[in-house]
Each structure stands twice: as structure tokens, then as C-alpha cells.
Design brief:
The chain is mostly loops. Helices cover 10% and strands 12% of the residues. The radius of gyration is 24 Å and the shape is elongated. The termini are far apart.
């Protein structure tokens, strides 16, 4: 079992953790619809990637109330 030899000061411990903070996302604007999307990902609102439609997105699903 590992046992520390000397106490690690708060300053040294916090300096080691200085690079562990999470960074905010870097959203880009979609070239076809203008919505914000993650870089190098398909746009969730329109389904385009690199000006090509990759995923067909349905606007709404019609539900027949009599069948439900």
C-alpha cells in the first residue's frame, strides 16, 4: 500500500489540479439552418452535415386519436 512520505501542501495540491477544470462547449452555427450544433457532428435540428442531408428529420408524428 502506498504511503506518502511528506505532507502535500494545499498550494502544491491545487497547482496540480489547475488543469482539471471542465471547459465550455464550442458550438458552431449550422450552415443550412443556422442553429447551434457541436463541431464535426450532424445537426440535430435539420440532419445536415457538411451541406449534405445525412439524417431525414420528421417534423411531427401524426397520431390517430381513434386508434389510441
Amino acid at each position: 500500500m502506498a504511503v506518502q512520505q511528506n505532507k502535500v501542501s494545499k498550494s502544491r495540491r491545487n497547482n496540480r489540479r489547475a488543469h482539471d477544470a471542465l471547459v465550455a462547449a464550442n458550438p458552431n452555427e449550422c450552415s443550412s439552418c443556422g442553429e447551434l450544433r457541436r463541431p464535426h457532428h450532424v445537426c440535430p435540428s435539420c440532419g445536415h452535415y457538411d451541406d449534405k442531408e445525412i439524417v431525414a428529420v420528421n417534423d411531427e408524428v401524426e397520431i390517430d386519436e381513434d386508434a389510441a
